[in-house]
Amino acid sequence: MDRRKLAAWALILFGVILLGMQVNIIDPSRSTIVILLSAFLGIMLFTKGINHSKHKGILGGSFFLLISITLLLMNNNILPTDDQLGVAYILFDLAAANFIYYLFQKEFLSNIISGFIFVLIGLVIIIDYYKVLPLWFAIDLLQTYWPVILIIIGIIILYRASLKNKKTIDLT
Q1: Nearest CA-CA partner of 38 in 87, 93, 82, 104
Q2: Which residue range(s) make up the domain with 141?
Q3: pTM of the full predicted structure?
């Protein structure tokens, strides 16, 4: 769909919602308005990213769409609502958005790594929330195995360097 047509439909939709609110036909809560706005922003950014040559906008668009789905599930009491769990949900949404963006831009391996980091941090928060393992255990693991992060960064640098060498060899 053309961006102008999408923007026009969005304006019509929000105009109808706002008019319904003005004449007391529709009475949405603040959370419903946030859900609708984040879904609208997600759709706009995602469609912009699909049409863009470098897919700019897909990461943000998918994040806002996922946030709106998460908020909708929390609003309808399908997901438990708690501040600590909310942080974990946001981290999982960030991870999923990075994985989705990687599907469109496969040369950005950093999106996969970022996604896994967000998932790990979210899992630590959930494990702490449900008291599966004590938080000190996760901190102890991090203090012991933090050099693994350096190893992973080194592997990424080598991988990217080999890709650049392969591209320059293919061009010559």
Answers
A1: 93
A2: 135-172
A3: 0.71
